[in-house]
Amino acid sequence: MRLYFIALQFLTIIPLPFAVRCDERDLGRSMALFPLVGLSLGFLLVGVNYLLTPWLPRQLVDLLLIVVLSVVTGALHLDGLADVCDGLAARGSRERFLAVMKDSRTGAVGVVGLVLGLMLKYQALLSIPVEYKREALLFFPMVARFSQVQLAVGAKRARLEGLGSLFIGGAGLWQFVGAEMITLAVAWLLLGAKGIVACVVAYLLSWWLKAWFHRRLGGITGDVIGCVSELNEIVCLLALLVLFLGGNL
To answer: How would you class 1 by CB atoms within 10 Å of its CB: exposed for 0-12, middle for 13-18, buried for 19 or more?
Structure first.
């Protein structure tokens, strides 16, 4: 449970009524439980959806669900999405890309990336058939947190400082296997074959992006992990939407 609370403290701004002991090695070890934190976020969204649905139209409820997810995670991964978009727009060397991502200011391209990302996530969630909405809310935050483990394990560090570097250095094969087993088991219980297919889509996207950033930056940073997590939330919802509306699984 201690590693779960370490992961919860890192991935959310949810306050804990007690102190949790954590050393540098625990940060990497806690990644095995990142999908459980994602599932916990999903339960939060399901609860908010249950409370608001009788009182508000679905369009507004789904927008508030995106707001709740952004707030409770401290917009940590949205910041990574914006920083990576700004880095891509810099069109310079590896050092230029890393310097732009490290800059605390958000540029015009970063703002555009944020707006487009949030709009895609909202529209995809809004289009999910209502009979599958609860399962989708539980599913997509979990898979996105698994993608963070996938990005970190076995990655090279593009820079030596930062929290992302600590997770990359501390996560290993057992963290990856543990996180993957949790993700696939819950995906099957929630959605059966559709859940496994959506996991595979997110898995392949994450591997491709991991390889691309290794070629472009020589490794992975915390911003890259956050960016890929946001992209996987969108891709998971889109994949489920395609499977729900047109799949024969």
So the answer is: exposed
Give the model's pLDDT for residue 97.
86
Burial zone of 85 (CB within 10 Å; 0-12 exposed, 13-18 middle, 19+ buried): buried
Given a contact cutoff of 8 angstroms between Cβ atoms, the answer to whether 213 and 219 are in contact is yes
Phi, psi of 124 (to 5 degrees): -65, -45
Q: Where are the domains of the chain?
A: 29-240
User: Cα(63)–Cα(84) distance, rounded to whole angstroms?
Assistant: 24
Contact (CB, 8 A) for 193 and 43: no
247 φ/ψ angles, rounded to the nearest 5 degrees: -80, 155
pLDDT at residue 103 in the model: 80
Q: Could you read off the pLDDT of 117-154 as tens digits, one per residue?
A: 999 999 999 999 999 999 999 999 999 999 999 998 88
Q: Tell me the CB-side half-sphere exposure of residue 216, using CA atoms within 13 A.
A: 18
